[in-house]
Amino acid sequence: MALPTRAPPWTRERTRPFETLIGAAACLLALMATPARADLRLCNQTGSKVGVTLGYRDAQGWVTEGWWDLKPRTCETLQKGTLAAQFYYVYAVDYTRGGEWGGRAMMCTRDTAFTIRGVEDCLARGFDRNGFVEVDTGQQKNWTIQLSDPGQPVTGGP
Asked: β-pairing, 155-157 with 128-136?
């Protein structure tokens, strides 16, 4: 009588919980190693709705853009990708309680959505002129600007 032959262990189908666990861990590590997006973000830490404008210098010169409307205690990406400048400028208005975040850097704005090239002769070109707060990003690749109550300093960090 012939004895039944068994297939070698490497050909048998079996469950491999350890290998499955190792594979899952490798996938998790790969996801964690994915670099974070580099953006310029602004967070409205107030209890008010806030309107925000942004000024910066790009390869063609000065640009101002607006308006981003931020609900209370929310954040918004103002520019996607690695920051192109060290200094950005912010002018914001508290729509709910009144007040503003402004500074000494004079730039052009308007009441409706806009992108304006240049910061000279704002009024003569039909724009408004407002003082923006300078934000020094320290040449970081990403930065988040924090707005607290109007009249308080604009803060931020990577």
From this structure: unpaired
Q: What is the pTM of this model?
A: 0.73
Q: Which amino acid is at 23?
A: G
Cα 90 to Cα 25, 46, 81: the distances in Å are: 43, 16, 18
Quickly count helices (H) and strands (E) in the chain.
Answer: 1, 11
Amino acid at residue number 22: I
Rounded distance between C-alpha atoms, residue 5 and residue 85, angstroms: 73
Per-residue pLDDT band at 8 (split at 50, 70, 90):
very low
CATH topology of domain 39-157: Immunoglobulin-like (2.60.40)
Higher pLDDT, 156 or 90: 90
What does the block give as tokens for 135?
């934000």
